[in-house]
Write a structure and sequence with these properties.
about 325 residues; alpha/beta; Peroxisomal Thiolase, Chain A, domain 1; four-stranded mixed sheet; 11 helices; 13 strands; about 25% strand; binds oxa(dethia)-CoA
C-alpha cells in the first residue's frame, strides 16, 4: 500500500507588501532583497486571516481537488509554528470547523520542515493501514512573529497555507522520505513563546523571530545537499529520474545550490519565493499547489521536496504525483 497525494489546495491573504513598501519601513531596498534573497513581495494576513482560517480555506480546496468529502478523512495533521492557540492544537480546531467526525488530529512543530514531517507521519499511518485518507495542512502567520524594525528578518517572511490529501493507493506515491534533527541550533533561529520570554529574557518585551541568517544559510546548503543524496539512494533513483524540485522557499541562492547538486536546470525548480516570500512550513504545499494548478507538474511525474529550518530540523520526500 502506498500513500499518494490525491489533491492539493492553498490560501494566500489578500494584502500584499512589496519590497518598495518595506523600504519605507526599514533601511532596505528592492535591489538588496532581490539579489541576496530573491523576494519581490509577500502576502500578509489581515485581522481575520488567522492560522486556523487560512488552514481551513486551503483544506477546502484540497478536498475539492481530491474529490473527497471531509467525513472521509481519518487523520488530520497540521504543521505550524504560528498556531493561534498554545492549546488546543490547530488540528483540533480544524476538525470542528471542517465538521470532520471524530478522528485523530494533532499538530507537528518542526518549523520550516513541518510539512515534510507531517507527510512522513501520514505516510506511516497509511502504509500501516491505520488511515485511508489523511488531511495534511501547513499554515503560517509569520507576520505576527516579526520585529518590523529588524531588516535582517522582516523582509524575509510571508503568510499563507497549503494543504494536501494523502490517500491509500495501489500505485506508487511517496517513495522515499527522510527527516533529520540537530538540536544544537537553538540560538541561531528561534521564536520564544511569551512564557519562555519571561523565563529566559529580561531585556526585551516581545517574542520576535530572531535569526543569524548566514549561519543558517551555511548549515542549510550542506545538510540539504546530503539529504537529496539520501533521498535518491533510498528510492534507488538518480537525479535524472526527478522531473521537478519543489523546495522550501527561503533563499534563491539555496534553491540554486540544491538544483546544481541535482544537475537540474532552474526551469525544473518550482519557485514561488519571489511572490510569496518564506512562508515557513507552508512554502512547499503552496509551491506544490501552484505548480499542479498551473499544469507544470503533471500526473505520473516524480517530484523531490526538501526543507530546512529552526531546530535545526531538515527533511524531504520523493513522490510520484
Ligand atoms: O526558512 C528557515 C531557514 N532560513 C533560511 O534558510 C535563511 C538562510 N539565510 C539567508 O537566506 C541569508 O543569510 C539572509 C538572506 C538571511 C541574509 O543574507 P546574507 O547574505 O547572509 O547577509 P548577511 O546577514 O551576512 O548580511 C550582509 C549585509 C550586512 O551588512 P554589512 O555588515 O556587510 O554592512 C547586513 O547588515 O547585509 C546587511 N543587511 C541588509 N541590507 C539591506 C541585512 N539585511 C538587510 C536588508 N537590507 N534587509
Amino acid at each position: 500500500m502506498f500513500a499518494k497525494i490525491t489533491g492539493t489546495g492553498s490560501y494566500l491573504p489578500e494584502k500584499i507588501l512589496t519590497n518598495d513598501e518595506l523600504a519605507q519601513l526599514v533601511d532596505t531596498s528592492d535591489e538588496w532583497i532581490m539579489q541576496r534573497v530573491g523576494i519581490k513581495q509577500r502576502h500578509l494576513a489581515g485581522e481575520n486571516e488567522t492560522t486556523t482560517f487560512m488552514a481551513h480555506q486551503a483544506a477546502l480546496k484540497a478536498f475539492e481537488a481530491a474529490d473527497i468529502k471531509p467525513k472521509e478523512v481519518d487523520l488530520i495533521i497540521v504543521a505550524t509554528g504560528t498556531a493561534d492557540y498554545l492549546m488546543p492544537s490547530t488540528a483540533s480546531i480544524l476538525q470542528q470547523t471542517l465538521k470532520i467526525p471524530n478522528c485523530p488530529a494533532f499538530d507537528i512543530g518542526a518549523a520550516c520542515s513541518g510539512f515534510v514531517h507531517a507527510v512522513d507521519v501520514a505516510k506511516q499511518y497509511i502504509e500501516n493501514n491505520s488511515a485511508k485518507n489523511v488531511l495534511v495542512v501547513a499554515s503560517e502567520r509569520m507576520s505576527r512573529t516579526l520585529n518590523w524594525r529588524d531588516r535582517s528578518t522582516c523582509v524575509l517572511f510571508g503568510d499563507g497555507a497549503g494543504a494536501v490529501i494523502l490517500s491509500a493507493s495501489d500505485t506508487p506515491g511517496i517513495i522515499s522520505s527522510a527527516l533529520y534533527t540537530n538540536g544544537e541550533g537553538l540560538d541561531i533561529l528561534n521564536i520564544k513563546t511569551p512564557l519562555a520570554k519571561k523565563l529566559y529574557d529580561t531585556h526585551t518585551q516581545d517574542a520576535f523571530l530572531t535569526m543569524e541568517g548566514n549561519k543558517v544559510f551555511k548549515q542549510a546548503v550542506s545538510s540539504l545537499s546530503q539529504l537529496v543524496t539520501d533521498l535518491l539512494k533510498n528510492a534507488k533513483l538518480t537525479p535524472k529520474d526527478i522531473d521537478w524540485l519543489v523546495p522550501h522557499q527561503a533563499n534563491y541562492r539555496i534553491l540554486d545550490a540544491i538544483a546544481k547538486k541535482l544537475n537540474m536546470p532552474l526551469s525544473k525548480v518550482v519557485i514561488t519565493l519571489k511572490d510569496h516570500g518564506n512562508t515557513s512550513a507552508a512554502s512547499i504545499p503552496l509551491a506544490l499547489d501552484y505548480a499542479i494548478k498551473n499544469n507544470m507538474i503533471k500526473e505520473g511525474q516524480t517530484i523531490l521536496t526538501e526543507a530546512f529550518g529552526a531546530g535545526l530540523v531538515w527533511g524531504g520526500f520523493i513522490a510520484v504525483i
